[in-house]
Amino acid sequence: MDVDTVQLDQGSGGRATHELVEGLFVSAFRNEYLEEMNDSALVSVGPGRVAVTTDSYVVDPIVFPGGNIGSLAVHGTINDLAMRGATPLYLTAGFIIEEGLSLETLRMIVLSMAEAAIEAGVFIVAGDTKVVHRGKADKIFINTSGIGIVPDGIDISGRNARAGDVVLINGTIGDHGMAVLCKREGLAFENEIRSDSAALNRLVHSMLEVFPGIHVLRDPTRGGVATTLNEIASQSAAGIRLFEEALPVRDDVAGACEILGLDPLYVANEGKLLACVPPDAEEPLLRVMRAHPLGRQACRIGEVVEHDAGRVFLRTRIGGHRLVDMLRGEQLPRIC
Amino acid sequence: MDVDTVQLDQGSGGRATHELVEGLFVSAFRNEYLEEMNDSALVSVGPGRVAVTTDSYVVDPIVFPGGNIGSLAVHGTINDLAMRGATPLYLTAGFIIEEGLSLETLRMIVLSMAEAAIEAGVFIVAGDTKVVHRGKADKIFINTSGIGIVPDGIDISGRNARAGDVVLINGTIGDHGMAVLCKREGLAFENEIRSDSAALNRLVHSMLEVFPGIHVLRDPTRGGVATTLNEIASQSAAGIRLFEEALPVRDDVAGACEILGLDPLYVANEGKLLACVPPDAEEPLLRVMRAHPLGRQACRIGEVVEHDAGRVFLRTRIGGHRLVDMLRGEQLPRIC
């Protein structure tokens, strides 16, 4: 038996599964909830509304500059909770592993998850491991689901954008998608493009401390800023106008996009948030965002307008306007 | 474009994903939480301890007598909550779909999930859809995570078995595993073996009503009754003695197991529970179990003993004893 790779019987639910779960997962994620080894974990969430979310991660390649499928799976689900203003508390982790995956790779991924969870202050309280035959999955897929608690007085939803709101972002766009794509396609630039994958909960916490009345928060992942703003415009029945010259794009990301014929507005981010807030909150929010390591390049990129409900327009550098639709087709499969 | 099968762009996060999500998932799972279409759903759980669990389903074939991967994914996760005595409230659903899966199959699976959720009284409040290239997954994998609430006064855990407890089961063993295996291998018997896949939460509720002091509940899924009892024996540092003549096995399941060289004690179940309870609770519990459609064949199959801590023994029909270990190796890959 090949002891350096994951074997089918490690997904059997029997002895080999127990050894893998106890030897790797429980020891990496170490916490009282998981160590109970019951069918479900018992947790306390305290008073308040509970936020619930789920995401499966199938990114290819599983390791990319700035992260891997494990850290991404923790960051991404934490961010989905943070985008409701929730304090993330607990995650679950479901692994679907292709027979033959190197145990060293699995260990590295799991340790990244543990580290990302500790950094963000959440516990991974329940897990599941399945192993499928070689060729029936691609290395590893990870589902993380998350639970958080929304403090009273917070009401953040894609439905809440109002005409007059400004649209803020915490930094450059397209980094994650281009990092993954360049790695996948073997494209090398002078400086390696790194994913922005990061947990945004602490940044959001700081923002809510100075201004709890934020209308909308959304992380522009698959489909990019363009698709996410379209969702907000549609849910809020408002128009959104973007300013082309204000969109922060790293030079290398812009260059790679140009070479590949991609528009950074449609490229995935994994450490960015879009916020729609009343205009008088712009200044205090940008100040607190820029003081945070994940918000140094925070800026205003657009505004919510009354006309063109449900639509997003880009005011170009030369003063024209073009419609920015949702992503159509699939330019970057398996980006997260 | 083939409009009858799932396409890559339906996992892009863009327009095509929205159409699939709104046209199929949201309309099938219809509830106020999901319809909000935000990054996480806001739910209320009320007071009490919160039970959290996750499971990924990779069963092959995806449709089998008595169920499919969708109904199984709902039942299995509900059961993991019920095994803590929790009232299941909310599920999330994460889909990883292989490009080219027939949309009719996907629709059938999703409708089965919706039906199973309604039957069990839970809401599917959040979801995620990924599509991977043909050959990078096997048709469809589904993760369901679940949240429930544990009423005060309930303390059910694999750690709580006590010497003197009796071990009860709600019916025949091995039905699910043999249904899947016979379907997969094209084995036909006079009567088709059907999976026992079912949500056990209402049965558990009735049991807790007559006896809230149940020590252990566990559903013997992967690894079967033998592996699950070994887990309980190990967690509770107690011995468990099974009575061979008391083990309920359908004739056709026993026959199929014999032909295939399998031991029904190691074959997966998806609608069975094992309960360890004080001896004076046996009679009232068996009465209420037998009155429930999922417990008609409920019976006592063993007892918890002081000696042989951490081990499970079978008292055979002829009066001998043999050690029943956890499943070693993998006799039935992708059974759930």
Shape of chain A: globular
In terms of DSSP E residues, the strand content of chain A is 15-25%
Which two protein chains have the largest interface (Cβ within 8 Å of the partner's Cβ), and how many residues from each? A-B, 86 and 86 residues
Strands across the major sheet of chain A, in which order?
9-11-8-12-10-13-14
Sheet/helix structural class of chain A: alpha+beta
Characterize the biggest β-sheet of chain A.
7 strands, mixed
Characterize the quaternary organization of these chains: homodimer
CATH superfamily of the largest domain in chain A: PurM-like C-terminal domain
CA radius of gyration of chain A is: 21 Å
Q: Whole-Å distance between the termini of chain A?
A: 33 Å
Mean pLDDT of chain A: 95
Q: What is the H/E string of chain A?
A: HHEEEEHEHEEEHHEHEHEHEEE
CATH class of the largest domain in chain A: Alpha Beta
Total helical segments of chain A: 9
Q: So, CATH architecture of the largest domain in chain A?
A: Alpha-Beta Complex
Contiguous low-pLDDT stretches of chain A (5 residues minimum) are none
What share of residues of chain A is helical? Answer: 25-40%
How many E strands of chain A? 14
Number of domains of chain A: 2
The name of the CATH topology of the largest domain in chain A is: Phosphoribosyl-aminoimidazole Synthetase, Chain A, domain 2
How would you describe this protein?
The structure is a homodimer of 336-residue chains. In chain A, the strands form 3 sheets. Chain A has a 7-stranded mixed beta sheet. Chain A has a 4-stranded mixed beta sheet with strand order 2-7-5-6. Chain A folds into 2 domains: 8-150, PurM-like, N-terminal domain (60s Ribosomal Protein L30, Chain: A), CATH 3.30.1330; 166-323, PurM-like C-terminal domain (Phosphoribosyl-aminoimidazole Synthetase, Chain A, domain 2). Chain A has 336 residues and is an alpha+beta fold. Chain A has helices at 15-29, 32-35, 69-82, 103-120, 175-185, 201-210, 224-236, 251-260, 282-290; strands spanning 41-43, 49-57, 63-64, 67-68, 87-98, 123-132, 140-150, 166-169, 216-218, 239-243, 274-277, 299-305, 312-315, 321-323. Chain A has 9 helices and 14 strands. The interface between A and B is large, with 86 and 86 residues.
